Amino acid sequence: MYKIISADFLAPDIKRFIISAPKIARKRKAGQFVIVRTTEHGERIPLTIADSNSTEGTITIIVQGIGKSTKEINSFNSGDYFTDVVGPLGHPSHIENFGTAVSIGGGVGAAISFPTAVALKEAGNHTISIIGAKTKELVILEKEMRDVCDEVYVTTDDGSYGEHGFVTTKLKNLIDSGTKIDFILAIGPLPMMRAVAELTRPYGIKTVVSLNPVMVDGTGMCGGCRATVDNKTVFVCVDGPEFDAHLVDFDTLMKRNNTYRDFEKTALEHFSCHTHQMFDAAVKEQN
Fold first, then answer.
1. Mind listing the pLDDT tens digit for each residue in 197-218?
2. In whole angstroms, what is the distance from residue 132 CA to residue 195 CA?
């Protein structure tokens, strides 16, 4: 059992958890993830370790409640316990002094890019962060990024905060203005990562993406997280999660991710219905 030390919402449906996990906190490196299970019969959910404190023995994860299982995770609060937190899993980010390194986080992808941005800064890079969100209220970790990066830019799809446009718009502006970029880490929705890869390809800028496909065991045994990279089959949980963006077959990956969409929709509907029933029962009991 893993105790939740604190839990707070950073934005609507996006929650930050600090969890007691001393062994993971001591060993984790930027880019690695854990698999969380809320209860004995809960689904295994892979989540990047956003931060850790080896002295206090804690790790930080940030969860966006989209489907049944992530919404269930976000129903937990300080003092509650997760049944399992397994990790650290996956290969750490490759860190070196590239020169100028750009970390791009779309939506909750900012939580995944944050630890690597920290590591890149510690390695001596000039670090630039581009944070993208649909609206102002969904922007996360801006302050944390400003604390560690040399430059931070925020974009919103609707122009309600920062610069109006997509993260690729800002990246293109930086390139066009003459900024020499040596390395890019892009994390977010698959269409966003594909757009970044296509933008940087003609410039020959080294670009890495962190993939998060359907994953079950996190050990490479189930094959659920397979992807095609450089025309070869890889298992994201053990071969990644980070890959050369210019070699990833995004079209196939998006098709695979959509395979379970109907099942996920049904599971969410059942979970929402059950939650409403429990709420109604609690209200009746109080009355």
1. 999 999 999 999 999 877 777 7
2. 13
Parallel, antiparallel, or unpaired for β 84-89 and 33-37? antiparallel
**151: Cβ contacts below 8 Å, ≥ 6 apart:** 127, 128, 129
d(CA 44, CA 154): 32
The beta strand positions in the chain, using DSSP E, are 2-11, 14-20, 33-37, 45-48, 51-53, 58-64, 81-82, 84-89, 100-106, 126-133, 151-156, 163-164, 183-187, 206-210, 226-229, 232-235, 242-244
Farthest-apart Cα atoms in the chain, separation: 66
* Residue 254 in tokens: 């998006």
CATH classification code of 100-257? 3.40.50.80
- Condensed to tens digits (0 to 9), the pLDDT of residues 53-91 reads 999 999 999 999 988 888 999 999 999 999 999 999 999
Instruction: Report the residue count for the chain.
Output: 287
Are 33 and 45 in contact by the 8 Å Cβ rule? The answer is no
CATH of 2-89, one of 1.20.1740.10, 2.40.30.10, 2.40.160.40, 2.60.40.10: 2.40.30.10
Contacts of 284 (CB under 8 A, 6+ apart): none
Domain extents for the chain? 2-89, 100-257
Q: How far apart are CA 33 and CA 48, in angstroms?
A: 4
The edge-to-edge listing of strands for the beta sheet with 151-156 is 163-164, 151-156, 126-133, 100-106, 183-187, 206-210, 242-244
CA distances from 68 to 91, 121, 215, 274 (A): 28, 36, 15, 11
